[in-house]
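debug: dumping io for the single-chain case to check the tokenizer round-trip. Nothing else runs in this session.
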Amino acid sequence: MSTCAAKNEMMDLLELCRDQPDLFNELFLNRPAYWSRQIDLCRSVVEYRTTVAYSGNMVGKDYWIAGIIIWWLLTRPDALCIITGPSQMVLGSVTFKEIRRCLDGAVIPFGGKLSCGIKASPAVIEIAPGWQALGFSTTSVERSSGQHAKHLLTVVEEASGVEDFVFDAIDSLGFERLVCIGNPIRAEGKFVDLIHQAARDRADNVPPRLAVNAIQIPSTESPHAHQEKSAFGLADRTWLESMYRKYGRRSLWVGSHIDARIPDVGAEQLIPPAWLDYHSSQQRPQVPPAHPVNFTRRIACDLSEGVGRDSTCIVVVDDWGVLEVVLGNSMGLPEAAGTIHRLAVNWNVPHDKISFDKLGIGRNFPNHLARWGITTAIPYAGEGKPQDPSSFVNLRTEAGWKLRNRLDATHLVYEPAPPLRGVGPTPGSARGPASWPPRPMLQRPFYFCSGPYYVRLVDELRPLTYGLVGKMTKLLPKEEWATILGHSPDVADALIQSMILS
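debug: decoded output
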């Protein structure tokens, strides 16, 4: 076939794919076919002026977006694509990285220009002057205001977190198609407004060339949701179950990042009172001294200057619940150190399983503990770095989340593998047959010892809420919490602190 004939055939195929982005994906990008919900998105972009995809994680959003951008550019001569996201780093390291991967595997070599570096601003794919895709962060999207074209596609990544003024700037571009995609992490905002607008447009029979179409894609609809492991990085059973265990099935995070549900409110109560009522009604069983739970004991101390209604609170807990609470508004640092020593002796708590609030007056507390021979206690700062900084904004939030999961009676745990018969507990010995699967089961109640502290604990936990900051969970700031209560949340803070050693 001559070069001219081959070029004509390619142009014919591009024209064939003009309204079939899924066909373009297979013919020109040479990639695995889109799954059903990605095809729904393709049809929506072809038919509707605005497409809103509110989805869970790991449903192939970036894979699809990269293909749509290349499809738009190559099937529409002199087309323009404006892509915006929360940061230039995200655009360069996620969206444009996926675009490069598309072009690397395409059946026809890409002869245009691609910007280098993940922080390039704007990120650029240029076929010819004016025939291009430009990536701007939302902080600099106004730089796109002079960009116009007959065929203009605008893409908004992680749209739920994008402020309204960015959408105002996008409206001024006069786009032919707009695609907004992201997790529904907020209860309000332009992203949510567009989702509701889609319902009104559908009810009013607004023609597609003017209408908004919203498509909800939960992670549980992933074609690999029932597979142990997805070979394509889609949501699979392993990931789903691990996220349920980490955040709880009824959490805001799961609602936004798996179920793709718009939250009713921006914040949710961390510990519902009904959970506390359930656990406080349970009777703790007696166990022998050598029982494993007795080796999980720990002490947490929330220090107070004894001003107003603030109190120093010291709690002794184990994996089954609260064993003892000492609360006093006249307890100074020497008295608190002596009380911790007494409790450590009475409950046989190792010194490295003792924690204390190290900020404020806590800076001098190690000296008082040292007088009792306690030198390995762990200083705690709620605003410190969590063990999982990608999920929680600070250590206090992470500890609070552990408490939430522990008090959620529906939260599943996994029973340990039984030892093989005839095999002693020697180091490194096998436990259970190789094919033995761990079985999920409901966790044991969290028992509360009796005492006047409990009423205060319930009152303190009632206004404590959490919300989402992007993909991370954040507790209500302690200062706001204390303002609502009229005093420092000493008992609840000590109990939350105790979770760092759980």
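debug: round-trip ok. The longest helix spans residues 88-105.
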